[in-house]
Structure prediction request, 297 residues.
Amino acid sequence: MFRFGASIAALSLSLLAMTGQAQAATEDRDVAKLTSFGGTCANCDLAGRKLMNAKFAGAKFVKAILIGADLRGAMFYGSDFGWADLSRADLRGAEMRGANFTQANFTDARMSGVESSGADFTQAILVRVDLSAAEMHGVKMSGANLQRARFANVELIAANLSGVNARDADFSNADINHANFQGGRFDGAVFRNADLTGSNLRGAIFSGADFRNADLSMVTLSGADLSGARGLDQDQLDDACGDGGTRLPSGLTVRPCNGVRGSQQFMLWREMPKVPSAAPAPPAPPAPPKAPKAPKW
Prediction:
């Protein structure tokens, strides 16, 4: 039963070229004709509906039920899906620009190839979510549950994952530049071949995490626990910094950050390049030619 508990404004049909307002109740489970949603539809039950390429612009779908919905290629622009249930939904190739998914449930959702900029997943549940090859720029995931989530080949640029539970998550081959992992749990997570350049790992726990061939350039490890991490070597740690609270596997060390935050002023504590020696003085110019002798008469 497809019921709208509240009015849906600015709802356009694929057979129409303009957006209108609608308030409807229908038995049809195929809602692919609905191409644009706006207004308010709190607590809507859209479980299992086909909403491929649907556009949600400025819509309010707080606590909406979209369990198992087909949202492939859907566009979420500035919309509010806080506390919504999108578990087992298919969101492959969706776009999420400035959308709010605070405390939403994405358990077992398929989200590979998602393009997201500035979306808010604070305290969301993303257990076993497949986000492989997604572009997650500037997203907020603080306090989210990412257990066993798949972030392989993902772009997590300037993302906030502080305080997350990412036990057994897969970040292999991911681009995690300038991200914030502070205080998170990454027990058993995989960072093999990941690029964590400039990221903040302060106070995070990585028991059993795999860092084989990971790039730790300019990474802050102050207070982080990597004592049980696997695949770490001294060459990797030479590009990072930490403090007295950093815990490492036996035999490995990390230089102090000396108050430097992230990548800012990184060259203050990283080995400075050698100043080249002064260039040799140029050769003296050749002597001017002698004046010809006066002819004898």
